[in-house]
Amino acid sequence: MNWLVTGGAGYIGSHIVQAFQGVGLGVVVLDDLSSGHAEFVPDDVPLVRGSILDTDLVAATLAEHRVTGVVHLAGFKYAGVSVDRPLHTYEQNVTGTGRLLAGMAAAGVDKIVFSSSAAVYGTPDTDLVTEQTATAPESPYGESKLIGEWLLRDQGRATGLRHTSLRYFNVVGSGSPALFDSSPHNLFPLVLDALVAGRTPRINGDDYPTPDGTCVRDYVHVADLAISHVAAAQALAAGRDLEPVYNLGSGDGVSVRQIMTAMANATGIPFTPEVAPRRAGDPARIVASGELAARDLDWKMRHTLADMVQSAWEARAR
């Protein structure tokens, strides 16, 4: 039984590939390498270089490798940039998901785990997000992820596709020194790159109504996230009923200042972060509950903040 991981050469996808191998399940990667890295894919895992926009390639890959289910991560993931590139975002994330589903239907593959995003919530009016929190995305990226969920839902109604979507905020750390976050937009690599280059990292606002005045956010370790993606795939394969969506959340969150302190401790580079004015639209606190995922998908926070930062630093310094 093989599973296809779209975007499996990326930061999160490569950890999911490792998690599949860790439980003895066969896995295949489809990735166009626009942001992924071929060296992230283990030598014994087939890497098909191509796009989910190519329905024929998707169908052929599924058939050739006898794939029984898909974990779908491929897409354009930069929320801020999506505001300037909405058409590209929709093509990659909405059209791409539609064509992936068409390829699955053609190959008779009826199970999918979708890597969605907490960006579907926008700026919620609650400081603890649950699956019942209203969706109100504020970027083309968030909108495209929500539409992806709708596509799965509608295909499920039409064809019996078995599916679930996993929503999460900030993914950090590393499960292997060889796998690292190379995003030019994420907080952890930005801070680590600044420290290595001799620059001082910056906090945007320290006057929020939080314990230390800085924003509190949900940060989850990438290896923990990968375990629950595989658990979702195993549940679908076993015929278990799953919720249509799950939040993979910490339940409490950490502040930006706590992250900066942990960065100084892990790197051994002492610094006092610069404090800049607040950014417009930044809420004081957004944290998700992971209770449903803990019940159904073996979700738990196995790593502390110190673990997250230390593992990210070890991968960055390698």
UniProtKB/TrEMBL annotation:
Source superkingdom: Bacteria
Keyword Ubl conjugation: no
SUPFAM superfamilies named among the record's database cross-references: NAD(P)-binding Rossmann-fold domains (SSF51735)
Cofactor requirements of the protein: NAD(+)
Keywords: Carbohydrate metabolism, Isomerase, NAD
Pfam families: Epimerase
Keyword Methyltransferase: no
Example of a GO MF term: UDP-glucose 4-epimerase activity
NAD-dependent epimerase/dehydratase domain segment(s): 3-249
Pathway given in the UniProt record: Carbohydrate metabolism; galactose metabolism
Family assignment from sequence similarity: Belongs to the NAD(P)-dependent epimerase/dehydratase family.
Protein name: UDP-glucose 4-epimerase
Organism: Cellulomonas chengniuliangii
